[in-house]
Automatic annotation (TrEMBL):
PROSITE patterns: HTH_CROC1. InterPro entries: Cro/C1-type_HTH (IPR001387), Lambda_DNA-bd_dom_sf (IPR010982). It comes from the Bacteria. It comes from Pseudochrobactrum kiredjianiae. Signal peptide: none annotated. Transmembrane segments: none annotated. This is Helix-turn-helix domain-containing protein. Coiled coil: none annotated. Residues 11-39 form the HTH cro/C1-type domain.
Length: 93
């Protein structure tokens, strides 16, 4: 099985998240996000699963953003236009 390479800085930029926002969403310290962005991306476990979900979300956003409403963070919104990226991910990992 081939391991998917995650480019965390690019992922954050697509999702329009700061390091602090990503850390809060993931339930980790800011230093953990810094480590992820500098080659310490987890290879397995809940953190890896979280980052893979974010990666898929960014791909989905890129393919639908041209016609879909977005919230202030760039996340796809529901018809009521009140969704936020944190709504899809559980607190802490």
């Amino acid at each position: 099985m081939t391991e998917t390479i995650l480019d965390i800085p690019s992922l954050r930029k697509v999702l329009r998240l700061t390091q602090s926002q990503l850390a809060e969403m993931a339930g980790v310290n800011l230093s953990t996000v810094w480590r992820w962005e500098n080659g310490g991306v987890p290879k397995r476990g809940p953190a890896r699963a979280f980052l893979m979900r974010l990666s898929q979300e960014s791909i989905d956003m890129a393919t639908t953003s041209a016609l879909s409403p977005t919230d202030v963070n760039g996340a796809q919104c529901c018809e009521n236009n009140h969704c936020a990226p944190t709504a899809i991910y559980p607190e802490g990992i």
